[in-house]
Each structure stands twice: as structure tokens, then as C-alpha cells.
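Human: Here is a favour to ask of a fellow structure person. Comparing notes only helps if you start from a blank page. I am asking you to supply a protein in sequence and C-alpha cell form. Write it directly below this note and I will take it from there.

Assistant:
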Amino acid sequence: MIIVLKPGAPEEERLKIKSLLLREGFQINEIVGVNMTIYGVIGDTSGFDPKRITVNDFVEKVMRVQEPFKRANRMFHPDNSVIDVGGVKIGGKKLAIIAGPCSIETEEQMGAVAQSVKASGATLLRGGAFKPRTSPYSFQGLKEQGLEMLKKAGRENGLPIVTEIMSADKLSRFLEDVDLIQVGARNMQNFELLKELGRTNVPILLKRGLAATIEEWIMSAEYIMAGGNDNVILCERGIRTFETYTRNTLDLSAIPAVKKLSHLPVIVDPSHAAGMWWMVEPLAMAAIAAGADGLMIEVHNDPENAWCDGSQSLKPERFRRLMEEVRGIAQIVGREV
């Protein structure tokens, strides 16, 4: 339920309304704006009579929320959320560009890629230390050793780091070292992991599951937010359809859909969506044109010999070209890089 107060509602009346709601056992998400105050009421309000609120002269209107997600709902938070990741704002006018290799291989590789993507305009450094793979025989990542390499490359180049968490038992280490914790597509509905992340205040990058609907995706964000962590960023990375030409099907329609339903930032990963490097550039530009708040791009200095997903990785020089193209699209849609 949403309660909108009239402009200039006195503090005494606001407290009266809040006290009533709290006595009924509801949680209150309060948004105080320049012109109005909004109360997002969380809980089972089906048996609550809205007239108990509307009788107050300072209540503008009371609305029921039909969607099952509450904290992530745009009705609860009309303005776009802007998430701070190590000083980089995601969700504002400036686009966030996350770049780096799919898998961390060597210290030299990470250092070289970090330096090149920073020079081209990337704002965050990505790299996989713990790798969820379809086959148990595929390379699973360098784990803690790889995390140290990523941490060093990020620190030396002044870039906040992004990497994927696989299980809650690694959370304490991630809280110490990682600026943006990624929840991969396979873990989007790992609800116990999401609950643990909800008890932190570290920013979370939540990727859409392979076959998840938009509502299921936002509901996973709600799991994190229900625990008290509102620092959630959504990532569209392609979904599984009947089409086999590409690795996945990039759902660009999800960007405006999520923007209508939720206040959370949305970034796009065209690398995992396409699975082919030559598709990354046009899909990235289309994502920015559709309203994405940023991109996650795989970049490798030697993709032919990459340990993982070399076929979808851009070489540094192509990433530099992509950044030039993205700047042009961003200017057209009123954003900047």
C-alpha cells in the first residue's frame, strides 16, 4: 500500500499516521521529497481499511500495490535509485562501464587489461575468480588467488572491482575486498544467498536468470532489499529462447519494462547475451539507446588463448572503439560516459 501525504503535512500528523501503521504490524518505507512525503507500507494490508488513513486531512491518496514486490517497486520510490560503488554512481546521468576478462588468469593479464580499459573510459573492473561452469570439467577459476590479482589490478588503476560470489561461505572475504558483488544468472534464485546479501550494505549486481521472467527477477532483488540492503543493481544478460544462433537472446525490452516497474538501475551484458565478439558493439549501443544505465563488457588482451569465453571478448583496441561509439549514443539520449 502507498500513502501520499499532501505538501506541508506537519510532523505531528505524519507521526500519527506512522504510529497507526506500526501498531498494525506494518513496516514503513518513508520517502521524503521536496514537494511530498510517501509512505510505502509493507505487509499484508488486505484486511486493513484505507479509510482509517484517508480521514486524515493531510493524506492526498492511498493506493494498493498489485505487484508482489514492494521495496523495489517504483510506486514506493518514484525517483530513480543511484547506487554508489566505490565512488562510481550507477543509475544517474553518467553511464557505468564495467570491463575486464571473463576469467582472471595471471597477474600480468589483469594488470594489462585493467590499464587498457581504464584508458578507454571504463569505470569499474570485472574479472571472474570463482567460475560457475556448465561442465564440471571446465576451468572453475583461480578462486582466492584470482581475487587477489583482481584486487591488486583494481587498486593500481583506481577502479572499483566486480566479481561473482558463488556461496555465502565466501561472503566475509567478499565484504572485505569486493566493491560490487555479482550474483550470477544461475544463482538468481538462490534465496538463502540472497538473504545473506540482504543483511549487508554492500552493492549487489543481480543478473537475470536464464529463464526468469521480469517479475521473478525483480522478486529476487526484493529478497535482498527485504533484508535491509537497498543497494541493488539489475543486469540483463540474455535469456534462453528457442533461438540457437546466439548464446542467449538479449531482451532489450526488459530495460524499459523494469524502468517502468522499478526504481533500480539496470545495466546490460551484451557479451554473455551474444556469445560472439562481433555482436557486442551493436548490442551495447542498442542497450544504451533503450535506456540502460551502463554496460558490462568482456575484454581480453589475447582472446584466442583465453581460458574462458574468448569468443565473446573484445580486444582492447575494439573496446576503445566501442567506447567512442557509446559516447555518441549517450549524447543523443541525454547521458554521458
In short: The first helix runs from residue 11 to 23. The first strand starts at residue 2 and ends at 5. The radius of gyration is 21 Å.
